[in-house]
Amino acid sequence: MDRQKTVLVIDDSAMNRSILCEILCQEYTIVEAENGVQALKMLKNAKSKVDAIILDILIPEMGGYEFMECMKKDNRFAQIPVIILTEKADRASERKALENGAWDFVSKPYDAEIVKLRLKNVIARSQVSLLKELNHVMNYDPLTGVYSKNKFFSASKTLLTSNPDKKFAFLRLDIDRFKLINSFFGNVGGDKLIKYMAKHIRDFAKTTECCTFGRIDADVFGIFTPYQGKEHTIEQIEQAVSRMKALTPNYNIMLVYGVYIVTDRELPISQMCDRAALAAKTVKGHYMKNYAFYDDKMRLSLENEQNIINEMSDALENHEFVPYYQPKYDVKTNKPVGAEALARWIHPTKGFISPGVFIPIFEKNGFISKLDLYIWECVCKQLKEWKDRGVPLFPVSVNVSRVNLYNPNLSKIIIELTKKYDVDPKYFNIEITESVYTDKNILIDEMTNQLRSNGFTILMDDFGSGYSSLNVLKDIQVDVLKMDMMFMFKAKYEGRAETIISSVIRMAKWLNIPVIAEGVDKAEQVDFLRSVGCDFIQGFYFAKPMPAKDYEKLISEQEEFAVSETRSSANGLLWGNNSGLAVSIDDIDQPAMILECFPNDNIEAVSSNKAFIRAYGFDSSMYGKFNVVNCIDEGYKELYTSTIRKVIENKGRADCVFSMHDINGKKLWFSTHFRYISETDISTVIVAYITDVTDMVFMDQRINDYKDYVKNETERRHNVLVVSGDEEARKELDRILSQNNDVFTADSVENGKKQLSEHEIDLVYFDIELISENEAFPLDVDGKKLPVIAIIPSHDEFSRRAVLKQRVSDFVMKPFIDEIVRSRTANLLKIGITGVANEKFFSRLK
Predict the structure, then answer these.
(1) Separation CA 770–CA 747 (nearest Å)
(2) What pLDDT shows up at residue 538?
(3) Quick one: which of 786, 727, 725 has its CA closest to 751?
(4) Is the separation of the CB atoms in 47 and 95 below 8 Å?
(5) In whole angstroms, what is the distance from residue 431 CA to residue 402 CA?
(6) Torsion angle, CA of 231/233/234/236, rounded to 10 degrees?
(7) In 3D, which of 273, 260, 249 has the Cα closest to residue 227?
């Protein structure tokens, strides 16, 4: 049953209200008010909807016309029909009532039938108007006025059905990284861009027969248009892109198009849109191409992805995922020294599923976290089994996905897992991809440091494949670098990859970090890596990933061979320049010497390689054996000899950095990597790989001096000048900034110039309202290289445009937000002071 409609009667005469109530009470619920103020309050507090208002124009406190003006300003009441009560029935009164928003009028004295009829009519008209408005809201986008999503889809379906002989295409377009545009220009600027897109789509439709278009979501639009060939469609896209660039010449707007050519006319329009979206997804972020045409491979890829998602949990439960072990080989001995555990999916019906297929999907949906934990536990179980059976143990590294790296309990999980299976942490290495370190996340630093302190070895995987490798390496602690050779050997220019690789290996040796080259599958790659001093190799050249039983057989056989080889050759080592050892180090493209170490720290240089002779012009064979310790500066002799004692004791490797003076008195620094070779009854043979790090040491000293200089400059209080004609703005900025800075203020440009001449100002706040739009920036700040923050009114488009043309570094809007003002001030002061410090410091060095 329909509810009884409510009528609000507004009249200061109780008698008139009583008469109207008596006429209408049988058919309507009547609410009364004696003036406009009371009526507005009743409207706002009404529990049920008011369907019509009968209003006397001559009411106290707020006249009838003023009351109607207030109603029009409030969207909740603007559509309520109003009938005016008037004493006069002349045309002038009628016109004025209608002009002020009245729907109808009745004159006094009241004719009951006329009142009922006119009230019934205006309510009916208002309902029709409301339906029209609702229909418009449902069918048209309120921001742009184009079709809404549902209306666009239905109109496109109608167009397709009524034109059976025409071929159509669905174009889906949006703006790549639209959120950044909103951040840069604000929501007002973003809305302006959306309306501009809608305008040009509308203009396009005017020139195209049988075309529909609409806004699908946010910055996403759709166009359903006749298809006239691929080249014609691409030309339309390029024209649209050029128009967008013309709108925003200072900001690179990237329109992305996905195109679905309608081949299945029975397909719902929404699915056509989905297919166009799939196509668009393939070019997101590709700045050389901004459109793509849908093909069925995209749909099949999506279906395959869904199939993998549907099966992944059962696969884990059924142990279909297994670790395969890819050995890592020592470059100098060609013997395995460990392995990397890689996840493999052996499906009961599909067989091997490539990790290149399922790993990206698992990384996207988060399942990689569970797979990581599963593989880690499998590896720990395997190491425990090998240990119990006496199989030779070598380190096995496992991969940690980005998802798991943000788990605050990760280090605890790994530590407890190795304890559970009694696995020594030195046999359970952790591989973390280089790109993760670029996040500069404190959590990752804490996690890796905690693992290292508990005896785990950290490997940086894919070193060199990111964009910040060298920058990252200076700030983090890793034990081993892994370079992907498949990436490095795709260099565009011949020779560059080799130069970069050799430089990275040399740099790693300066930092005493071993290097593993992975993805090595050719003999020439092995020869090259050996020549530049790479430590380890992993790749198909030596071995593919293999099941645990095959890897166990490999390391068992290798261990037996290694033991017998050591026993047979221990007493047969020749020390001369023609010995096998001397010949082998001659092939290394790094200065090296063979040392024979006797008791009482007597360390003699036996032989040096060609690289050593080229670098230092010295051949030990020319002078015979000599005691190396005598050449080293006094303060480093104990470090040098104790390092060698450590190598002999552990029969392993060690590093040290020492200084010495050349024959001209110049101080030189060397980083030396010592490697145990063998021993006799009276001495031990060691190879020393030598790197000149003199320039690096001096540079580090300069950098530390520079850091101290910048720190001293940064920590002092700074002078900030506020130039504004707005006294409140000056006071507010003084309050916000004075805690950490000395604040000077000026109420005009002239006074601002005076303050600049009298004080050493570090940063300027300048009110943009002090100058006109095309006027040049009036303060002389360029000579002093001072950062400038513009003060602009909130949501003032003119001021924002003006700011972009002025000599400013940043801007703040009124009213000020303390945190924003302080953070932007601190950022610019840091940049400005660092720049000035650069000039002062390096000019001082000159």
Answers:
(1) 9
(2) 95
(3) 725
(4) no
(5) 11
(6) 120
(7) 260
Residue 107 token pair: 């004159």
The partner residues of 719 in beta bridges, in order of sequence, read 742
- State percent of the chain over pLDDT 70: 82
Lookup: tokens for 476? 């983090």
Residue 520: how many other CB atoms lie within 10 Å? 26
Q: Which residue has 């004692």 as its token pair? A: 645
> What's 770's DSSP letter?
G
Question: Which one, of 487, 449, 447, 448, lies nearest residue 467 by Cα?
Answer: 487
For residue 844, the model assigns a pLDDT of: 46
Q: Which amino acid is at 196?
A: Y
- Name the nearest CA neighbour of 670 among 596, 598, 615, 588: 615
pLDDT interval class at 837 (50, 70, 90): very low
Q: In which residue are the tokens 């507004």 written?
A: 10
Q: In what order do the strands lie in the sheet with 104-107?
A: 29-33, 6-10, 52-56, 82-86, 104-107
Rounded Cα distance between 682 and 679, Å, is 8
Q: Are strands 653-661 and 626-627 parallel, antiparallel or unpaired?
A: unpaired
What's the rounded Cα separation, in Å, for the pair 10 and 12?
7
Strand partners, 685: 596, 678
pLDDT tens, residue by residue, 288-345: 678 889 988 887 877 788 889 999 999 999 999 999 999 999 988 889 999 999 999 9
The residue written with tokens 């788990």 in the block is: 407
36-45 vs 64-73: helix axis angle to the nearest 10?
30
Domains of the chain: 6-139 (3.40.50.2300), 149-294 (3.30.70.270), 306-554 (3.20.20.450), 580-692 (3.30.450.20), 710-845 (3.40.50.2300)
Most confident of 463-472, 487-496, 664-673: 664-673
* Residue positions counted in the chain: 846
Q: Which two tokens stand for residue 324?
A: 């395969």
CA 340 to chain centre: 29
The CA distance from 634 to 34, in Å, is: 106
Q: Is 102 in contact with 54 (CB distance < 8 Å)? A: no
Task: State how far the Cα of 811 lies from the Cα of 298, in Å rounded to an integer.
Answer: 45
Q: What is the DSSP letter of 786?
A: -
Banded pLDDT at 584 (limits 50, 70, 90): low
Identify the CA nearest to 229 among candidates 172, 169, 175: 169
Burial 450-467 (b: 16+ CB within 10 A, else e): ebbeeebbbbbbbbbeee
**C-alpha span between 254 and 197 (Å, rounded):** 12
